[in-house]
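Posting this for the archive.
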Amino acid sequence: MSFATTVYYAPSGSLHMVSFAAVPVNDSLLLSDVYQLRQVSTTAKLLYPSKFDHAPKDIALFGGIDYSLNEDDLLAEVGKVKIENNFSRSLPADLTRGVEKWQYLPGTLQEVTNIANAAREKKIQTMLFTRAQAVEERFKSFAGNKSPSIIHIATHGFYFDQEQQDSIQAKNKVYRQSDNPLNRSGLLFAGGNVSWNSNSTSGKIDDGILTAYEATYVTLNNTQLVTLSACETGRGEVKGSEGVYGLQRAFKAAGSEYVMMSLWKVPDRETSEFMQLFYNNYFSGVDIPVAFQTAQETMKNKCRSEPFKWAAFVLLR
């Protein structure tokens, strides 16, 4: 008798927050040791083949971001960006990608640089945005038919539960106390610290904080994969069978076929290693789910007793 080795699953409710790859089967085996796990937003996805060719044509990478740029520097950089759509403005020492003091993440620069080099070796058109170049407007400029095959964002991410509202003071109030869960999760771009600490900019530029609500309206017609290499990008407000209201919902609604995201705070160094493994696998010719699983297996074998280093990331189709 033969048994299935690949399991497709569409979580419901709080199961969205479970890393099934790290669920133990017994004292020695994990679920990912036994099955190839494939997460989908709905099992109806299995009825429809991908509209994308396997080989990616182009990739845009954001990383090594300067979160503390002043507004004059941001204005100079934003002036180089052409956006055809009229988008609305958005209202620590351990170097994890998600702490509230938005510090520079050295691992993200190495991560995106190495991935960019690997892409160029495979003749994939590569757009790399670091330091001041990684402004929110550059991401938004990819909307519509300009969107690349892959968008990789290595940065800080955040999500605030509604229950956290009572103890919040004035700082970051708009992101913590919004009734809309899509405004309580987001990603940091260049200069984001200015708005994060004051909740405002002059209005001449975006604030460097891309909320899930904003991301929903950036149509990604040509994008097969969005990788959110940051903390808690898979989290959001769970509304029963309606799914998770956060960044994963936003980028799926925007049109990306796959979204890679994290369920908890992830360490900078191991995340960088995981991402480079994934893209080396993907660029070698295997498809996205296999590339993801292979990278996860490599990290699991290296850090098996520390699942927080390898099990946070999930791939959603």
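The chain has a mean pLDDT of 83. Residues 47 and 122 are 31 Å apart (CA to CA).
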